[in-house]
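Weekly sync notes, structure subgroup
Attendees: PM, AL, DS (notes)

Item 1: joint prediction request from the bench team. They want all two components modeled as one assembly rather than separately. Inputs as received:
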Amino acid sequence: MAKLDVTKLRDQNSKSKKTVNDQIATTAEWFDDRLGLAKGTRIFFNKIFPDHWSFMLGEIALYSFVVLLVTGIFLTLYYVPSASLMIYHGSYAPLRGTVVSAAYNSTVNLSLHVRFGLLVRQMHHWAADIFLGAIAVHMCRVFFTGAFRKPRELNWIVGVTLLILGIVEGFLGYSLPDDLISGTGLRIMFSVTESIPIVGTHLAFWIFGGNYPGDGSIIPRMFIAHVLLIPALLAALIGVHLALLVKQKHTQFPGPGKTEKNVVGTPMWPGFMFKTQGFMFLVVGVIALLGAFAQINPIWQYGQYLPYKVSYAVQPDWYMGWLDGALRIMPSWEFQYHSFIIPNQFFPSILLPGIAFNIFIIWPFIEAKIKKDKSEHNLLERPRDNPMRTAIGAGALTFFFMLFAASATDVLANYLTISLNIVLWFFRIATYIIPFLVAAIAYRVCIELQRAGDGAGKRKRFNVVWRSDTGEYFTEKSPARSDDVDYLDGEPEESLELTPEVSKMVNEKADLIASDRNGSQESTDSDPEDLQQISRD
Amino acid sequence: MSDSDNDLTSDNTSGNSVSPVTIRNLNIEDDPRFELLAKNPKRTEILIAISFAIAAVLFIAMMVDYVKGANTQVEGGLMAAAFSLLGIGMVAWGKYLMPKGPFEESRHRTGSTDEDKKEFVDAFIGRGKIAVSRRSFLGKMLGAAMGLFGLFLLGPTLRSLGPNPNNALNHTAWKKGSRVVTTDGKLVHVNDLDVGAFMTVFPEGVIKKSELEENQQDLYNSQTLLIRASVDNIVTEKGRETWGPQGYLAYSKVCTHAGCPISLYQQETQQLLCPCHQSLFNVLDGAMPIFGPAPRPLPQLPLAVDPHGYLIAQADYNEPIGPGYWGF
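Output from the run, pasted for the record:
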């Protein structure tokens, strides 16, 4: 291994780059005189980042957010947030002469006419899907390892809020082009808003500027929410998320030298900063690859939204899929008292996410209450070490996955050529049963993994049956070997003090038994005899 | 926060003999943690430099392609390759040409020390008590005033956005005597549709000569499915004896589940299917929902045939169209 030769480096610098270094020093001095940054920056540079792959998941979310900001700014230069109708005269021949909205027109133009536009638009869309995907997986990591426990409950809440805002932001984003698919999604959102008890109908009319589809003001309203209000909130909350992470320092997995009172890993400067910058480039690279070769949301094929037209076999972006699935598998119930209706769509699309996100938010407090745990935790738990939490998490994930899959009932029925009826009834029942099965299995697996310790699949220690001089039989464990595993008991039991010769002999016998399980009964019968002989010697 | 909180100290528990040191006076030459991970740093450096150089070439290629018209796949492919190379190079730089560590940072309880807490309480209560606590009445008045302003703000931020629903959800553009027209604005004659055919229709006047002039709300609310299920009059329900002249039935096209336009008609089974969430309605039974999440039948438009043989509406729908909503 080579060493970083600092003296040499210093010498080189002092000879060849003296002026440059002097300039840097002078500039740094200038800023420090005014801002006093030296100490704070040093503390920042010394921040330790644990070396574990699962800590990269949040970084993926962060860097796809950066991609979203940059590509989003590009798109705002071309997108026209207006529902006013016009005749399309652009470069896409099949649409020429048809009536489209200014929003749709500008989105088609920025895709097919503006140089580099399609790549940026597709990167923006892919980055959004990756952003939310990374948030979801990062959240799983935090949940299953117990990283949300005291003192990090607040950051967990900030994280859940980021997830909710991200979903809203994504929905607004893909609704902006005013194409046939997004328009239908918007109509469903109007119905969902209408269903909120007491205030819903008024709220829907106010937001849309009238009865659906309103007076066209929904497009500029969604636009300002999508490009200013929610991104500003997202950016601010991401700032809070990271500031809390610096203030509270990272959690880490248990391991040699890692305690509740330290963090072991790579410091911010220089190691982590280089690695994370490289990781950002990789995230950009993957998004560019998807933007180039994986077509997403080709709105010129869908056509302009028309209130009486609809497309077939349409699914929303993945993060809305579970809500769409919930809408589909909801039984046809509705509750009415005079003109006061709690409509069908209220339960799957207002009540369900309402309950789900509230449970997410208060989960750290629920768990602390159940476990009567008020202490600080900086060391993470392996999922197997907290079977109840792991089981609940696995069950919840399965529930959301079932809802997600249920948003494709029509596609599944077509693909598998079975009745839509059967598919729907399967999801109506299975969505509530399979999560419990998965939770039970996850619980069982955790317990088994705990018992196996680190030695799953390794050799068990053999028991050796002895006969004493007087003919009495007793059982003794064979001498421990380094790769032995004691199932069910943690520590190896103390065994007889044996001379080296004897233990060698016993081990040989044990190996013989292992390799010759099907061997004759006689050979095993004779074992104690031989051993006895040796021990007498 | 004391200085030593954030100093990099050695890995005490790992058993090596390096004593805790701060990064400021670290003797880098002697510390094994400052060894590089790379076995041959020179070679690693060259490889990283090559990846950066290729990335630079790819960026130039992007410029060339941009000038030539910016092909999406070429630009994106080059960009992906270039950034991946930069990424791999940077990660390799950070991993192999940096001190291999491990480094350690100590941490303390997150909460403040008792002393700090006491000082805070002294400042907040001790100093503030006389000034603030004894004026709780003022505080309440201030809170009430600001609360009322907050209440007022609901007006501009919500109420100003749009009109109240009033009666808007209870009627559509259909009126007594409205003639039925196709999406092209043509009148529908009673002989126009064969049995088993269906089409989307509107009341006359909603479809204009130019789509630019059409009222989107009328277009949405009054969209209606016209189905010819038979040649004889069809009675779907009691009280609708005259609504289905010569086998023509008209139902609101807006699904009673989530408001999607229902666009699939299966002639054999006389069923309508909404493509959004697969609600199924029975055409001959007053569009009763028979499958899926829709809770209510589709409203039926009472049809009639005028003296010239054209289809007309006897009246508007007798119930609100579309999904359920909170009445008022």
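Discussion: Residues 1-25 of chain B have pLDDT under 50 and may be disordered.
Action: AL to compare against the crosslinking data before next sync.
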